[in-house]
Amino acid sequence: MTTKQAGRPASEAADPKLKRTKTYLLAAAIRSIIQSGEIAPGAPLPSQREIEAAQGVSSITVRAALRELEAEGLIENIPGKGTSVSAQAGRARPAGRNLPAQRAHSAPAVRDIDDVEWAEVEAPTTFRTNANAEIAANYGLPEHTPLFGTDLLLQGPDGKRMQVKTYPPFATAVSIPWLGSNPFVPAVEVQEAAQDLGLELATTHYITARNATPDDASALRVPPQTALLVVRRITIHDEGPLVIEEITFNPHEAPVRYDI
Question: Is the peptide bond before 108 cis (omega within 30 degrees of 0)?
C-alpha cells in the first residue's frame, strides 16, 4: 500500500479532538486506497507498525482508524491471519454506529442539488464565528476554532429554495494566501484554489435532519416544523478541514441521489 507521509501536529494526548481528526484522516486515506482497488478484496493490509511508520501517526490512531473501517465492513480481522480487505468491500456502506449524523463517503454526491442552476435570492450574509460544540464534534475541530462564515439563500428555476452556509477555518486562509483578503467565497472556489496549490483533498458528507425553525420556514417557504434535510460536506487535506459546507432544504422538493 502506498501512503502519503503525514506530519505530526500537536500531541494527541494534549487534545483528544485532534486525535479524532488524525483518525478520520487516516481512515479516509486507507478507505480511498481500498475503494480504488489498489488492495484487492481478500488481500492483507500492511501491518499496524508499517502504517504507523508510513503515516507518522501513533498506534492509538492506527487502531482507531482500523476499527472504523472494520465497522464499515471494508476490512476484517481474522485471528491468526491479521487484517485484510473484506470480500464485500466493493459493496460495503459506512455504518452509522449511533453517530449524530449518517456519513456517506465517496464524492461527488448530492447530484440532484448540484445539477440545478441555483440563483441568489439575496446578497449573502458574511460573518466571523467560532466552532460550536456540534460543528467541532462533526468535523473533528477543537471547539471554538475560529471560522469565517457565509450564509446564502438560493432558489432554483422551479421556485424551490435551499440555504447554504460555508465555513472555511482561519487556517485555510493561511494555506491559501488570496483568501486572506476575501475568505467569503463558495466552497468550490476554495477547493479549486487548494487543488491549484497541489493539495490532496478528500470530501465526506454527513446527512441528518431537523425540524424547520421559524426563520427556516420563512426563508425556505415551508410550513413550521417541516422536516428538513441537512447535508454537511467537509473537504479535508493533510492539515485538517479545508472548508465546511452546510446545505439545508426540504427533501420533498429537492430529492437527493447518492453515487457511493
Answer: yes
Please, are residues 145 and 241 in contact by the beta-carbon 8 Å criterion? Answer: no
pLDDT digits (tens, 9 = 90+) for 205-222: 888 899 999 999 999 999
Average pLDDT, the chain: 75
| Cβ atoms within 10 Å, residue 168 | 26
Give the pLDDT confidence of 57-103 residue by residue, as tens digits. Answer: 777 778 878 887 887 788 888 776 788 888 766 544 333 333 333 33
Q: For position 153, what pLDDT does the model report?
A: 92
CATH number for 16-96 (one of 1.10.10.10, 3.40.640.10, 3.40.50.300, 1.20.1050.10): it is 1.10.10.10
Retrieve residue 140's grid coordinates: 473533528
- Alpha helices by DSSP H, listed for 94-177, are 111-114, 133-139, 170-175
pTM for the whole structure? 0.55
Residues of the chain with CATH 1.10.10.10: 16-96
CATH superfamily of 111-249: Chorismate lyase-like (3.40.1410.10)
Every domain range in the chain assigned CATH 3.40.1410.10: 111-249
Task: Give Cα 220 to chain centroid, integer Å.
Answer: 25
Q: Is the dihedral of CA 5, 9, 11, 15 positive or negative?
A: negative
